[in-house]
Amino acid sequence: MTAPTRRPPNASRPYPVAQPDNDPEYGSDPNGWVPVIIAGVIAAVVIAVAGVIAGLIVVNIRESDTPAAKPTPAAASAPVQLAPIGALPTTTVAATPTPVVPDNLDPVAVQQGVTQVLTESYGLGAIKDVKCPAELPVVVGSSYECSLRIDGVKKAVAVTVTDPDGTYEVSRPR
Length: 174
Description:
Elements: H1 33-65, E1 80-81, E2 90-91, H2 107-120, E3 127-131, E4 143-150, E5 153-161, E6 168-170
């Protein structure tokens, strides 16, 4: 192994001085930074492409981890039973359950719903003694008056049935 050699000191310049880029003694090229810049741009593009690919892989993994929605049975075709020769085939149709429509609203549930609506939607507090009629038939468009106390002051709200399933609206207290 040989020891590195140093150039002899320059008498006219006793301290190191930066040499011009085009000095053939140092072997530098005036286009020396161009390959470095090109390599940096290529590296940035490669990193960006790798990031996009990694993102797509993560999204694909997350989508595959979510449980698939269970298929809901469409209108099932009715099974056909074979009949003796000469007889017409018969079909068996399964009865589909009909949704249960309430005849009356539950007064306790309506009272809790009134309290919840007044608290969450209207931002009121200290709601006490909510009383609604015992009979609340589900008739679209019908209104029922419920009494209550807000901060000790007696008020009333209207509960209006909006659809046959028993959905209702609560008015602002008056």
